[in-house]
Amino acid sequence: MAELSKTEADAGATAGEAERGRGLKVHHLRPAPGAHRKKIRVGRGEGSKGKTAGRGTKGSKARKQVPARFEGGQMPLHMRLPKLKGFNNPNRVEYQVVNVAILAELFPDGGQVSKADLVARGAVRAKLPVKVLGDGDLGVALHITADAFSASAREKIAAAGGSVTES
Question: Boundaries of each Large ribosomal subunit protein uL15/eL18 domain copy (predicted)?
Answer without folding.
Answer: 97-165
